[in-house]
Every structure is written in C-alpha cells, then in structure tokens.
Batch of 2 targets.
Target 1
Amino acid sequence: MASRPSLRPSLRQSARALGHMVERRRHPQRFIQTDKTPWEEIHRDGIMAVRHYSLPPMASIPVGEEQVPVRRDKHRVPLILVPALGIRCWTFDLMPNRSMVRYLMARGHDVYLIDWGQPSQANRELNLDTYVNRWLPDAVDAVRRASGSERVNLLGYCMGGLLCLLYLGGHPQAPVNSLATIASPVNFHKSGPFGKVFSLAAIPAMKIHDWFQFRLEPLDSKLFHIPADLLSWGFKLTNPPGLVQSYMDLVRNIGDRDYVTEYMTMGQWFNDMVDYPGAVVREVIEKMILGNSLASGRVTIGERRVDFGHVTQDLLAFGGASDRIVSVRAAREILKVVGSREKRFEVAPGGHAGVFAGSKAPAQCWRVIADWLADRAD
C-alpha cells in the first residue's frame, strides 16, 4: 500500500508563517532595519544637522547578493548626500545590504549626509531661502572644516537634487566640484500625467496672475503645510495596483523572514515620512508647478537671483524608467538649463523609490555614480 505523503514540511512552513505574522504585529522593530551605519553629528542649526559616516573595519560589505570589497584609502574630496524633503534622511541608509551610504564608503568616498530634521506645524514658515541660501552653504562649510578639503561633491535625490541645483545657480563661487542628481524634476510640465495636469492648470493660473496680480505668497503657510500622514498616503496612491500587488507578495512570502524584513524596511520609507513645510509647498506650487520656472533656468529664491547657466560643475543626472512621479522627460531637462561642459544623463531601472534604492539600484545607479565621482574626488 502506497504511503501517504508527509504533511510535516507544509505544517512547519505554516507554523513559521504564523509565527512571523504574530511577531510582525507585536514587534515590528525587529523587521525594520534602517539607519544602522555608524555616524556622528558635526553641525546643527535648529532641526537641520549634518552627519559624518564611518564604516567599521571589514574587508567587504554585502550589497544584495554580492560582496563589495572595501577600498582602504579614501578619495580626497568628500561627498555630501542631500535627501528630498518629506522623507527621513536614512533613506540613504536602509538595510545594511541596501545602503547607499555603505556602498559609497566601500568605494572609497568620504560620506556626509544632511538631515533636514522633522518639520512640524511650528516650522511651517521654513522656505526655500532657508534651505538653499542658509542651510546648504552652512553644511558645505561644515564639511569642508571637518574634512580639511577645500571642495566637496554633491549628490541629491528628488527635491534634494533641486535644492543643490538652486544653491549652485545662486552661488556661482560655491566650492563644489560636481553634482549628481537622481529623479529630480526640472520641467514639472513634462512629468507624465501629473505634468499634463500641471501645465493645464498653469494656463488659467497665469491669466489670473496677470489680470489681478494674484499671488500665493500672502496666503498663510498653514494652508499649504502637508502633514506626514497625508504625504505618505499621497505617495502610496500614485501606484494603487503596485500597492495591492506588494501586499499580495507579502502574503505569499510571509514565511520568509528575509523577505518580510525587506518589505517592512522599504515600507517604513512611506509609513514614516515627515511634514512638508507650508512655505516651501507654497513656493513649489507657484514657482515650479504653475510657473514652471526651473525649465527656463531662472528663478528668484529669497533675495538671490538663481541662474542655472551659472552651474558649471560636472553633472550626472538619473531618471527612473518607470517613475510615475518624476518622468524621464522631466528629469532629462536638466541638461538644457545648466552651463556645465561635462554633463550626462542616464535612465536606470525602477520607479521613484526603486531607481534610488531598489534591488537593481546598486548594480545600476550606485555603481555608475561611484565610478563617475571617483574621477572628480581626487
């Protein structure tokens, strides 16, 4: 008589999956692996701070399924990472095997990171002038003092890249060798479906402005302040099918601890966002979305006239092939407005988060950036 197949493996798998589900609910911090690389604070101004990272002694670091050798000597010119607003700065340092900070250090770069802090309603008057003309120059000076280097390199993600661009365009003598941007929209009216809506809305908005001299600036900043929870839902709703699919994938892989850890860590990105200051939102709407001023290469930030033609640093820019928030067309426009002689644009796999920190990012975006910066860091 044929023996009945054993049910033990499937029972064990079911028990493991149930255990992970219970643990995930009761102790989510065990699965969320963010901000694990050692760092020290070298500068602070209010909620803004600058971090300097260090890599523990090791011969190599894990990146995905590979081991990346750790270079023993550092490049001379330090690198400053500039996050987007609205997200935590540790998006540059997710899981130990998905950390851009660790990867760049392993490749020999001396890495610093700006932490924009956690704005609240009390910080709703923070505007672009503060970020571009005060905090960024101060951060650059702090890194120069700490590193002993006269110059720095900049790498910005999304709005972080635009802040760098505005800083360089308004400070032509900035001690910066090069700029790399990832998913930074220069032409808001070319950013996919959102761009079409922006461009259509801009026509009547500009007419109203011309006829009645109506501006958003006099309106209270609290009307534009975006709370973290609302910002989080806004990002998630840019791709509802993807949100449903990712949850279905989690259910199918609930017994795989590594998968659950990666899912919850990446999910923390969108579940733990920070407020977007109202004054910045008001300026972005008026100057970048309706006026589309960045596409012309000229805009006023505070008392400074910004001209992207004054940006002469070497430039490397990336767009995400499937980015629903910042289209490749919107990001590529940076090549038209800067005055750089050496400028390059790359399309890399992934959406708005994936191009920056997805599973394919290390072999694509990160590798290209590390190679490119190496020639500009010695």
Target 2
Amino acid sequence: MLDQTTAPIVDADAHVNPPHTMWEEYLPASLRELAPKVEHGEDADYVIFEGKRRKVNLISAQAGRKGKDFKMEGRLSDARTGGWMPGARLEDMDKDGIDTAILFGGGPLGTANQELYKASFNAYNQWLADFCSHDPARLVGVGYIPMRDVDESIAMVREFAKKGLKAVNIPAFPQALQGNLDAGNAQTLALTGDVNGDRSYADPEFDPFWKAVCDLGMPVTIHLGGRAVRFNQPRWFLSDLLMSKFGMGEPIAIMIFGGVFQRFPDLKLVSVESGVGWFAFASNYMDETWHKQRYWVNSVLEKEPSYFMDKNIYGSFIHDRAGILMRDFPGAKNIMWSSDYPHSETTFPHSMEVIEKLFEGVPDEDRRMIIGGRAKALYNL
C-alpha cells in the first residue's frame, strides 16, 4: 500500500451545492427580490422561482447513501451538508482521506432574465470564493462564466481570479451573443452552450480570451458538457450519462484541429467528469485521420493531434481502470483521479479502498501523479 503521507490526495472533481437561500444574500440588492425562495411542504421542500414551484432535487447530494437508498427529491435536510457548509466538508474530506478538493458547480440561475442570469454567475463565484476562504489550501474553487461576449468573459475571470479561484469553467460550446435564454435551458446552457450554434472556440474571436487565461496561468475546464443529461427522466438517464462522457471529445477536437493550442501553447484544457479511457482511442483516431485527410481540409496543424493531447489536454475520472492502464499511450497521460463528492456517483466514504483497487499493480510514481501530483501542478497549488 502506498504511504499516503508521501502521496497527498487531490480530488480533481468535487462539488459544492450552494443553498437556495444563498441567492438573496449574494445577488445585487436591486435583484434580490427575484431570488428563489424555499417553501416547506408536507411531503418535501419546494423551490419557488419565477412563478414555478418544484421539489428540491437531491441527485447532486447523495454522498454517504447506498444506491438503493437514493432520494432524488425531498427535503433540504436530506442533502449532504458538506455541499454547502465548509466545516462539514472538511470533516468529510478527513473521513475520506482527501487532502485537497477542486470544487465545481452551483450556478447560474435558470432564468430568462438576462441581467439576473449574468448576475447569478458573479453571485455564485463570490459565494464559492467565500466557501474556499475557510481553508484555501484544501478548498480550491473553479469559477463559472457564460462565454457569450469575449470582453465580458475576460472581465469576469479577472474579477474572480482576484478572489482566489484557481480555474475557469466554460460551456462546451460558446453561448449565443444574444443569450437565447429561457427558464428551462439557462442552467444547461452554462454547461453545454449552444451546441448547434455558428460560433466556435477555434474562431479568432476567442483568441483574446485564451491569451487572458494563459496570462493568468489559469486552466480552463469543461464539465460534462458535451451532451446534456436528462437528469429528471429515468428512461434516458443512464444512456445519457454514458454519451455525456464521449461527447466531450467534440469540443476537444474542435480546439485541437482549429489550432487553438498551436497558437496558445501554454493553454491547459481539462475534461472534467468524462472519464479518460477514451483518450487513447481519440488520440490515435485523430492522428490517423489527420495524416490522411489534412491536405484536402487544409489543416493548420504542424504536429499530430496526440501531441496536443499530451501537452494541453487533461482529464478527470472516477472509476476508470482502463484509462489508468492506457496512461502510457499517446495522448492519454494527463489523467487525474476524482471522487465526485457529493454526487450520486461518488466514491465517498470509500475513496481509499477504491484507489487501492483501481491502482493495483501501478508503480508508485505513476500513482502519485494521478491521485494528486498532476492536479497540484495543473492548478498551481
């Protein structure tokens, strides 16, 4: 067994679940009356927002429960408190053997109100910065932006970088300049963007953004955003989860073939919660097709796609023995373990046992990098 005192564990994908009551405190004073409210019903707690009343969704807060005991809806008291209480979070990290957690997602608001939508990104980022301030060495926050207007995006990143957040999460595809919001898709857009839009991250329009994050030394993350998962529909949930992993290959390929990493060699892009076992296949396939097709498509690349996978692309996984075993294949080395706490896929509270099983037979040096060393270097910890 690897001595954990010499191999700190960095959870490369963990989550926060800000309380619904947070918005009233963190939104600008002029918008606070529009914030969600919580109502206690006889059968469940309800979120009241923009004329709609829905039960509190608990799928993102099932840590510590067995699958047969999952509750998809219910009361706030049913949610794991480590999702929003820093003290409880640190206790759970101690219980699970986690030294540092990279923290993702709890915004924006699902609103068609453009002003409220943008303000909710800033509110969430401030809440997250305050959460992490309880122990900045162990709680590492990733800020969220909508990626509509490039100047707007740069300003938002610079602002939350001053507050200590260490990376920026963008949707898998740019959002439309005009927002194209409705209350039903606003939160999904924050992860996926406009999948069928005309804009591409490879377009010169976005080069000032890539330069800005490189200047800040800040990695860019895309989180399970290649394909939207229909979380509330059991019929599609499992198949959507699978396809959401593979769908992350599209934005990665767009940026590689579009020459983004050739123009910005210091740019680091992280595929979060999408597994890594497909990295080796994707790299090999992109190399083979590039060699055969690069002339007639007028490819701008000067090196094979796998070169950029190894230099610029990182990925996190939960259960992915295949990805670990393929770590020495071209394009498949930059992999990082994660617990996905407190979501329903989490390894909590058995992360150490899971790691022992996953890494059986893996040399200590490789294991140290995958369970912590690579994330420490990537996020400048």
